[in-house]
Amino acid sequence: xxxxxxxxxxxxxxxxxxxxxxxxxxxxxxxxxxxxxxxxxxxxxxxxxxxxxxxxxxxxxxxxxxxxxxxxxxxxxxxxxxxxxxxxxxxxxxxxxxxxxxxxxxxxxxxxxxxxxxxxxxxxxxxxxxxxxxxxxxxxxxxxxxxxxxxxxxxxxxxxxxxxxxxxxxxxxxxxxxxxxxxxxxxxxxxxxxxxxxxxxxxxxxxxxxxxxxxxxxxxxxxxxxxxxxxxxxxxxxxxxxxxxxxxxxxxxxxxxxxxxxxxxxxxxxxxxxxxxxxxxxxxxxxxxxxxxxxxxxxxxxxxx
Length: 305
Known about the structure:
4-stranded mixed β-sheet; 3-stranded antiparallel β-sheet; globular
């Protein structure tokens, strides 16, 4: 299958995905090495989303009443990326790195950062089309100028971004503590050298300001969470599917967030973030076209839609 780099991604009939805008030439791009990133299969379940009011770190930055704890049920099994998508994986499928010509491009094994929500969504469209699966988004445009919108979420058979509820369910891995290793932040903690209540240090599970080395690290350099996911705490912030809504406590069964909005949700914290911003419950939101230096993503897919 051959895709011209300079033709748009069109939503006419069968979505013509993979048409990515080259940053240098207009030569044809053949995504022969495009493969879906490794995933972890998770079973449906019910969990407590959000944080208790007394969780240390909850109010340290961007006062966070939107973390109100509430019970959420996911009725479907789903797969989610074991790692954040890397530059190598993104370029193999899209034909460009997502970086400007003047940017210093990190090594291939680093998580793909400076990605807009739209670019993340378009990556999943390419994976779906190459696998002969239904696309979960409709996209228009090319390369860094692509624009996407969701067409279906849980009922979609193709690849997509995880919903906010799926992301937190997977990140928590059955825990109710601030971090997936069972620890909470110790009272009186240092924002960038944080000890946890289970006699561990945040450095063991997260890339954050305490071990920041100029940017994100290669995926998987810290301990995985109990369900085998790496870098859910720190490294790069991760786009999820949902539009942002401050109070989501009414969204309890297979939530997908509002149908429209001004910003998309980001989860997980980043390599330059404070420890409080890498907690499982921490939420942030940015305009979908923002290409900040710390924004990346991981993929998801409903197992049996």
